[in-house]
Amino acid sequence: MQLNATSTEYLFCPVRGPAGVDLTAFPVAIALVGEQAGEPASGDYQTAAWAGSPAPGITEARLLVTAGSLAVGAYMAWVKVTATPEVPVIKAGRVTVGVP
Q1: Would you tell me which CATH number, out of the four given (3.40.570.10, 3.40.640.10, 2.60.40.10, 3.40.1700.10), belongs to the domain 2-98?
Q2: What is the mean pLDDT of the chain?
Q3: Can you give the pLDDT at residue 21?
Q4: How far is CA 1 from CA 85, 92, 97, in A?
Q5: Which of 25, 44, 92, 96 has the CA that lies 20 to 30 A from 33?
């Protein structure tokens, strides 16, 4: 995934859930941490929103990333779904923040 450091953009993270489960019924959050930082701390997460389903069995979470909020570099995106009784944390992939 690629984000421009000088513009406000949505970061979309696909999440695969169990068959027949509507993920949009649960709160979702996304954290962006340094690529080598490991799993984020609870304070690293920001409230995200569900954006829709690009394919069967997949729902996308989205986070609005404002211009200048992240330094240029490589990050790892993590998605946390607050479901009961579990709170799965999913490593969503590498995000590169750059300047065009």
Answers
A1: 2.60.40.10
A2: 93
A3: 86
A4: 31, 10, 9
A5: 25
